[in-house]
What we know:
The structure is a homodimer.
Chain A: H1 5-12, H2 15-23, H3 28-31, H4 42-55, H5 57-66, H6 80-84, H7 90-110, H8 115-118, E1 121-124, E2 128-131, H9 132-156
Helix pairs in contact in A: 1-9, 2-7, 4-5, 4-7, 5-9
Amino acid sequence: MSFDLANSIVLLERAPAVLEALLDGLPADWTAPNEGPDTWSPFDVVGHLVDGEETDWLPRARIILARGANRRFEPFDRFRHLRSNTGRSLTDLLARFAELRRRNLRELRGFNLGERQLGLTGEHPEFGTVTLAQLLATWVAHDLGHIAQIARVMAKQYKDAVGPWAAYLPVLHR
Amino acid sequence: MSFDLANSIVLLERAPAVLEALLDGLPADWTAPNEGPDTWSPFDVVGHLVDGEETDWLPRARIILARGANRRFEPFDRFRHLRSNTGRSLTDLLARFAELRRRNLRELRGFNLGERQLGLTGEHPEFGTVTLAQLLATWVAHDLGHIAQIARVMAKQYKDAVGPWAAYLPVLHR
Lengths: 174, 174
């Protein structure tokens, strides 16, 4: 499917409810463990998604739409949440994510983007020129990738418990 | 984590709400495409989960708990849904899944399972002897694996739209 703004917003606005349905109120047995050293727990992933709302997606869209001389994005700190969320509860993080997402989608809708704006470009620190449509498509795919990651990390907590069925569960081997 | 009945039920009972939050009412652009020949769309995956509720998890638990002479499970038809769900709506399938899951968890709770019952065994047609605890752990991990699959299949619909960011999105390459 090529990029479609309405189809993107309809998924972006669901992510907070999906994460709440999956995680809010779960025992820490599910939400605190990760996949091993230097990997993220479900709690960590939600913290990363909060960071994206605060410092990545909308700030970059604003840079593109401002059409200034310097359209280079700030590098996104993918580890900021590991320092800033110590001691917070998952329920708090989920509520923060929902509030930020709501606010960001309100701003996105307010841009009234048409084909011309979606083709405007910014400079990614590694990739070079990227379009606003690519940025917004990535926002959607990034949500979905992290929902998949959370489900996978939780599944792996039962890697031993499933016994021989592990052979039939590819999610345990990624 | 070793198998824990309460921790398992708390996830099993969330699955219908997670799938509804993620899928119900989405345009078919997201729910109908798959990952290529002989792969499943999000619609197909929900159909497969319905089949599991109807013919797999509880029927096998009942065989184990009956402690009869023949504890061999019926093979699970992983393709039944592809024939039986033609023409149904995703909303209907999600509602059916929610109803079956509710009913099955009511029956599961009614078993009042303790350690002794969780150690009882059945005969898997391929793996041989498996315990009830392994069956129930697999039910949980199977849900999570298919939630991850649905998110991945949807993310891949934007594989081209994300442009160079595909390099940063491992979910697009699985």
